[in-house]
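Project standup — Tuesday

K.O.: blocked on the structure for the chain from last sprint. Re-posting the sequence here as requested.
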Amino acid sequence: MRTILVTGGTGQLAQAIARAAAAFPELGRVSVVGRPEFDFDHPHTIAAVLAAHQPALVVNAAAWTAVDAAESEPEAAGRANASGPATVAQICAESDTKLVHISTDYVYDGCKGAPYTEADSPNPTGVYGSTKLAGERAVLEHMADAVVLRTSWVYAETGKNFVLTMLNAARRLPELRVVADQRGCPTNADDLAHAVLGVAGHMLGNPQAPTGGIYHAAGSGETSWHGFAEAIFEAAAAHGRARPIVHPIATADWPTPARRPPDSRLDCTKLAATFGVRLPDWQPSLRRAVAAICAASP
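H.V.: unblocked you, prediction finished:
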């Protein structure tokens, strides 16, 4: 049976892809691998895992995603986000294995003032974005027909993400302060997983189609972090959760080691035109996720 290999272990997207696999039985088996079996800090594990699974397609969802910690640990971030993916791409190219690589909106500085298209020049402002951009370039250098999917503001019902952080904070505090001058596209990991597998199906079903390159894949619509928080609490209130007061603040009022892009909205037109894949509006997806979180932890 054909195998799709997903890296990233217990990460939000890797687990979401594992859940979504049932909706794509035509793709074959979906296997998820992570540390210590597959570890970018130990490059020999990459070749060993790929040789053992012999996949038809790899989804590289493994990454260093601790944005602030990357500023003080650039070498580790570089191994996870650049040199590791480069090795995956090299092996995939040598074995004629298809590759989907997950990247980020942090490759942009956020100063355009309009949604970014794939034609816009990247200009990362921190280590995380710089290493992810280096990873993109290395992947495509080794494998021109690889597909790179840039996404943004990803959350899930488990793990570490903004939705769970807000809901947990609301259990402790009646008032919260949330940045209101950064805009982006919230992306539900389950929606992204379906998009990834839709792209994978297209690549495997049309192996000669010239689809390699960079694509944007994020939830439809946009908001600020403050607007995102308000939507989270509105959804949670429908399930009996207390709704805190959310004070809008400026980025300058919440300093972090890494600079965040003030406006990293992504235009996903190219993804829809090429693969027929479009992620749904972020608000209904958020309400479903919050409902599941509240049901699991009343």
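K.O.: great, moving the ticket to review. The mean pLDDT is 97. The longest strand covers residues 98-104.
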